[in-house]
Amino acid sequence: MPRLEDHCWSCSCSPKAQTKHSQFASKAEEMLSIITSVLSSAYGSLLDVRTANLIRRGLVLFTVGVFLALVLNLLQVQRNVTLFPEEVMTTLFSSAWWIPPCCGTGAAVVGLLYPCLDSHLGEPHKFKREWASVMRCIAVFVGINHASVKLDFDNNVQLSLTLAALSLGLWWTFDRSRSGFGLGITTAFLATMITQLLVYNGVYQYTSPDFLYVRSWLPCIFFSGGVTVGNIGRQLAMGGAEKPHMD
Fold this sequence. Notes:
By secondary structure, the protein is mainly α. It has helices at residues 4-12, 15-78, 99-121, 131-150, 156-174, 178-200, 218-237; strands spanning 82-83, 205-206. Strands 1-2 form a two-stranded antiparallel ribbon.
């Protein structure tokens, strides 16, 4: 007479049960493989889109920085605010060849940092997010730079205080964010230090320097330039979508 244990083991380990179990395992493995490949493909596509978008924004910011460097540096050279060696003055737009690419690179870095910092702080910038506002900001920045070489004051301190007020007004009018103010100050500090080193090493010089080797109003120009480029970078990061004012 067969025992009960033998009957139970023969039922649970029948060939049909093993076949169903193996089929289920193979199907689950196949579905998992399909899901993994789909997710990998989607992630790769998203990464490619983000990389292409980042490169495109960087190139636009670089071009803007080069253009502004050519125009604004030409203005300072013509007004004898900055002096270059004679062999340099025969180059494009009477400007040292390395100034436009350096300014373009700086503009790309600063412009890409602004939206990244906004995202990191969890404070999306929504104040005056439209291209019309960005273009007005650029116009004000060019005006501040123009004023730095056109306005005549009794001393550079008065001019520096005036430009500092104009630069803060630009930030308040077109930015008003903590990240924008902080990055503007950082940009002004680093750019001024680099300029001091360049002048100290005789690459070029400023006439009537009153802040070590440069003019005391130079940090104001760098601050307003950083805020302007940051606004361009933020608008590019939004994909150029028009947003209503949020005053």
